[in-house]
């Protein structure tokens, strides 16, 4: 059982200090902060299964289980919540459309296993080879194209109810600029809530779903308060699985960037540079958590920037808080009624929030470029970003006898090949090579602006 040292009197944080990972406040305060972390991650975590058709309670369960596994593998040194990764949305949607949920889960498992292997390698060999493979211009391009590749999906949902979508989008933006701190960080959740209330006011919950023969209100009413989540198993036997598996591979690069950035960010904020040594374990832990999720029917996980924002605001980095958050999410998962509520969110509301959400994923990639001052006067950087983004946004495809490579895969390959091959030529010819640099401490957007 983990043991934490009490910080000061257990109630107040020493001026100029932080509550370190091996410290804690008193248990009532720790439990309250743990619940706050659940709320902070909830807005993003429930959206992934809602958009992909995965069971919401199952995804919540594996996010809680994944968080506990992460704490165990990192030896209780690295504070982090593992929520649903947005990077899985595009490949899961495509895999489900071509096959079924089993094919999508096989892709999640494949990503988890590969990420765990990378974690073991990093733990042994260090992280410098990752920096060399994926310098900022490449990392930023891959993250950006994954977000922008989803733009057509947002538009399809938006058209289902343009009024609800617009109200949701405007509310999301207003909450993000009106408030700082906790309310600002959950602006996406609050925007969906406003859209949800609009749907109630306009009679959405009285409309019969032709697939079930029930109205959303009836579906929610019939759902039990307590019950086991719905589990699914991956399908590695179907031909459709193997034709879509390649679409999941670029997600590994995104998860590597997010985990490395998370570790570096926490190490910087706590002033404990020794935490950087946990990078390999963090990758291994997220890989194991993602594998478990895929084996049971949940979406892949990643370290959450939303929760980094909460830690930065509270100055509490205690891992005890995340033990509370993990178990709270697990308890919440055993309520079918919660899943029914989220499954009843109208397409128009989802269209409004995903217009912002998918764009924000792309902006994270651009933020990587900005934070690292990527020099776009160099042709190798120009074409690495330009070609990969157009491929991802346009949704380029290669199809051959049932095997398909989509825009995310092709864009990722283009970014890697153009950068490394072009850089080798530019260095030999002295025409403006780029020396790259380490992956920055950048994850999902979150936290308060610094005045």
Explain this structure.
- This protein is mainly α.
- The chain has one domain.
- It has 21 helices and 6 strands.
- α7 runs parallel beside α20 (379-394), α9 (162-178) crosses α19 (347-371) and α12 packs antiparallel against α18.
- The longest helix has 25 residues, at 101-125.
- It is globular, with a radius of gyration of 21 Å.
- The protein starts with a strand and ends in a 22-residue tail after the last helix.
Domain tally: 1
Shape: globular
- State Rg: 21 Å
Give a quick account of the main beta sheet: strands, pairing sense, barrel closure: 2 strands, parallel
- The topology string of helices and strands comes to EEHHHEHHHHHHHHHHHHEHHHHHEEH
Provide mean pLDDT, rounded: 83
Assign a percent range to the helix content. Answer: 55-70%
Arrangement of strands in the largest sheet: 1-2
Query: How large a portion of the residues is in β-strands, by DSSP E?
Result: under 5%
How many DSSP helices? 21
Unreliable residue stretches: 441-451
| Number of distinct beta strands | 6
N-to-C span: 41 Å
Structural class: mainly alpha
Keywords: Membrane, Transmembrane, Transmembrane helix, Transport
InterPro entries: NCS2 (IPR006043)
Pfam family, one: Xan_ur_permease
Family: Belongs to the nucleobase:cation symporter-2 (NCS2) (TC 2.A.40) family.
What features would you highlight for this structure?
mainly alpha, 6 strands, two-stranded parallel ribbon, 451 residues
Task: List the topology elements.
Layout (H helix, E strand, L loop, with lengths): L4 E2 L16 E2 L2 H19 L1 H6 L3 H18 L8 E3 L4 H10 L2 H25 L2 H6 L2 H13 L2 H10 L1 H17 L3 H4 L1 H15 L14 H7 L16 H6 L4 H22 L8 H18 L4 E3 L1 H10 L4 H15 L2 H8 L3 H25 L7 H16 L3 E3 L2 E3 L1 H23 L22
Parallel strand pairs: 1-2
Antiparallel strand pairs: 3-4, 5-6
